[in-house]
Amino acid sequence: MLELRALSRHFGGVKAVDGLDLRVSEGQIFGLIGPNGSGKSTTVNVITGLLRPTSGSILFRGEDLGALPTHLRLRAGIARTFQNIRLFGQLSVWQNLWVAQNSAEDQARHGFFARWLGGQGGVRAEIAQLLEFSGLAHKQDELAANLAFGEQRRLELARALAARPKLLLLDEPAAGMNSEEIGQLRERILKLRDTGITILLVEHVMELVMGVTDRIAVLNFGQKIAEGVPAEIQAHAAVRKAYLGGDAA
Amino acid sequence: MLDFLQAVSDGVLFGATYALIGIGFTLVFGVMHKINMAYAGASIGGAYAGLLVLKVMSAAPPALVFLGAFAAGGLLGWMVYLTCFHFIPLSSPLATLMSTVGMLLLIDEVIVHVTQGMPQNYPAMFDDVMLRAGEFTLRGDLLLVFGVAIVCMAGLMLLLYRTRLGLATRAVSQQPVAARLCGIRLEQVNATTFVITGLLGGIAGALIGASVGTLSPLLTLPLTVKGLIVTVIGGLGSIPGAIVAGLLVGGFENVLQLYRGVTERDLYVMLLLFVFLVFRPGGIFAAKSGRD
Amino acid sequence: MDFYFGLVQIIGVHTLLGLSAYIVLLTGQVSLAQAGFFAVGAYAAGMLTVLAGWHLVPALGASAVCGAGVACAVGFPALRVKGLMLVIATLAFGEGVRLFFFNFDYQIARGDLKVGPLGGEGFRQIRFFPENGWTTGEVMLFIWAFVLAAMALLWWFDRSRYGSVLRAVGEDELAAQSVGINLTAVKVSAMTVGGAIAGVGGGLYAHYTTHIEHASFNILLATFAIAYPIVGGLRNVFGTVLAVIFVQGFLIEGLRFLGDWRNLLFGALIVLAMNLRPSGFLGARRRA
To answer: CB–CB of C172 and A88 under 8 A?
Structure first.
């Protein structure tokens, strides 16, 4: 589904991502972890096209993404959530989902006129479904800025789903959550995988990562230092060193 | 060829005033990320206020008038800060923009009212001094304009790089939140920035009055446009940029006036701006984080 | 009575100007170019009715097309210029248009007279309304037909997905891109629609004043144009209309009794309004 080949992104002298090789198979939940500053968010930004790679390539479903602009990558099936939520605060919950329906499928389904100048009626059912899944149906007309933090996180996820992604990049979705919320998030992620979406989970919160991923890659200083199933990673010496420093037995 | 050189030199000397106006715009932008649309108005207003010195002391030397304009400019700068930036939350950039436009109109109208719409003569210094080199002339009053402007710019640089206030200002322009956490009072820095740019503006207005010979409220809008063009060409937030661009625009404008006349001249200055916007939108010295 | 009709005419034309700035402002672009599109529409319509003998309605259609065309051409380079730089660039564009018309001559002979734009003198004798026997009241209604049509159009946009997309772009371009919105298409289309509306406004303006000149389309007009949606707030089109009525009706006309002091108060009241209500009369919906 997604393949990164020797991907690098430098900012002047800083090598945020350095020669990263990664392969995410279809239907996988792949975890990307690493200490702060290891290049996780930069990787997400390069995959979605907000940053151009300094070198290397990104293949999505076998095709090199090249210099495809961000909005077209979304149309091709790559959606993401933001670490510090970037909702459209001045729009309602319903409208946040509405403006995000930009997948190729949605474009084909509704004609130009209906999609752009039509009212809310045409897509009522689809958006209602997304709202149900996220538990936000009762708040559909509320301004996104007025939602509670947890609700905002759920809306952020729902909005990414509105684009009918094949690949979903989650950027630290569990930040600031308590155990109960993490459990709910875990359930939602698993349900998403059941619908056929491939997920790349960038995360710090081990409780979530270990409990939901099929495979994990570990970054440090922009380079991959380990890759394997969760159990392997937990026991890996280099990983412990990166997180804890020195030799931790 | 001589005409051309003459036009360039006269233009560049006069362009020092544009540089001062450009610095005013660019400094406020660098520190607060806002445009003070009232700036040129406050400059001309300061210049007018300098004339009050003559009311009090009818035989006052021009230098005193300039000093009056200097001080009045600073006062007007502080007033603009108070009415447009102190109370309006900085997260409403449109409101502050509109407010400065309101102040621009207000200052213009006050000038018209007080002078009853009559242009006022402005004292000049050294206007009878001419340095000649063959057929090439350097006007004494323009040299003074240039000289005073340079002194002001040097003073500003000293302030920014050799004083604590300057350090605080630069800190705020780079990282306002961190600056506050270090105990720098944002409101104080912002207000002071306005006073400082106001002082510069007052002098610039006086210098313009001195070299043109008269002051008129009709100067305000074209000066605003020119000042903004200089700021953009120089790079928003870059003081060296504003200086270079001011001299450039001054020279360019005068040369074009020589060859194409006054009515078409401004059109070409506009074209100069568009050329920069297309090929170098960041300006001559594109500033990274909003300041030099 | 004619006096009040005249006032309502002015309010109508300025509303079109304000609405043209409103739709562009929704996408986060603060444009001082609308007066330029207004000027283009004014001269275009004037020249078509006076020099080519067109009826006013198709001439206004041409104004809309000209305004839209110029706006579209401005819209693309405008993408490269962010935030406050755009304010300055559009200001300069507007001034450029004004200077263009300052230098623009195109006259043809009509009997003994020469008609058409003449540089600094302007364009006189745009007499479609008087020549065809329109009363002031009829002109007012004619103008407001277009104003209501523009309001209806923008209201419809606001209710549709396009309206939400415009606002999403205005709020957060990065997020908008990331959910698949084509920023270029959205921003340029908004600018183009704004240009069309301004063009029609300009065409109507030229005909009810019968005499236009470059000085009418100066920075002040450009500032009025953007002031209306800022002072009126971006919640919906009515904010802009209210702002026009406030400025033109209350401030300019209502304070007429103050004589010369009126102009003084004008600037002061804008400053006051912005300090008291930074997000405009009908600003963004309440945040909890």
So the answer is: yes
The sign one gets for the Cα dihedral B150, B151, B154, B160 is negative
Determine the distance in angstroms separating the CA of B273 from the nearest CA of chain C, rounded to an integer. Answer: 8
* Beta carbons of A116 and C178 less than 8 Å apart: no
Higher pLDDT, B9 or C196: C196
Checking if the pLDDT of C262 tops 70, the result is no
With contact defined as beta carbons under 8 Å apart, do C265 and C255 qualify?
Answer: yes
pLDDT in tens, chain A (249 residues): 888 888 888 888 888 888 888 888 888 999 998 887 788 888 999 999 999 888 888 999 888 888 889 999 998 899 999 988 899 998 999 999 999 988 888 777 777 777 787 777 777 888 888 888 888 888 888 899 999 888 898 899 999 999 889 999 999 988 888 888 888 889 989 999 898 899 999 988 888 888 888 999 888 888 888 888 888 887 776 777 777 654 444
**Pairing mode, strands C113-115 and A78-80:** unpaired
Q: How confident is the model at residue C283 (pLDDT cuts 50, 70, 90)?
A: low
Tokens 């446009």 label which residue?
B225
Residues A160 and A152: their CA atoms lie apart, in Å, by 12
Collect all residues of chain B within an 8 Å Cβ-Cβ radius of residue C268.
102, 106
For chain A, the straight-line distance linking the first and the last C-alpha, in angstroms and rounded, comes to: 37
Whether there are 3 or more C-beta pairs closer than 8 Å between C and B is yes
**Chain C residues whose beta carbon lies within 8 Å of the beta carbon of residue A100:** 179-180
Instruction: Test C267 with B104 for CB contact under 8 angstroms.
Output: yes
Binary contact (A159, C179; C-beta < 8 A):
yes
Contacts of A246 (CB under 8 A, 6+ apart): none
What would the pLDDT profile of C61-118 be if each residue is shown by its tens digit?
999 999 999 999 989 888 888 777 888 889 889 988 998 898 888 888 777 777 788 8
- Cβ distance C96 to B274 less than 8 Å, yes or no, reads yes
Angstroms from C163 CA to nearest CA on chain A: 9
C179:A143 CB<8 A: no
> Dihedral of the CA atoms B225, B228, B230, B234 (nearest 10)?
-160
Beta-bridge partner residues of A200? A30, A169
pTM for the structure as a whole: 0.86
And the tokens for B64? 């005193």
Chains that touch A (3 or more CB pairs under 8 A): C
For the purposes of burial, counting CB atoms within 10 Å of the CB of C55, is it exposed (0-12), middle (13-18) or buried (19 or more)? Answer: exposed
**A163/C182 CB distance under 8 A:** no
Give the DSSP H or E segment for B9.
helix B2-32
ipTM: 0.86
pLDDT tens-digit series, residues A131-141: 888 888 888 88
Q: In chain A, what residues touch C181 (CB-CB under 8 Å)?
A: 71, 99, 102
Please enumerate in sequence order all residues whose Cβ is within 8 A of that of A81, keeping only pairs 6 or more positions apart, or say none: A156, A157, A159, A160, A168, A169, A170, A171, A173
What's the gap between Cα C84 and its chain centre? 20
User: What is the identity of the amino acid at C43?
Assistant: Y
Tracing tokens 């990414």 back to the chain, one arrives at A160
A78-80/B120-121 β-pairing = unpaired
Chains touching C by CB (3 or more pairs below 8 Å): A, B
- Of B46, B54, B15, the C-alpha closest to B200 is B46
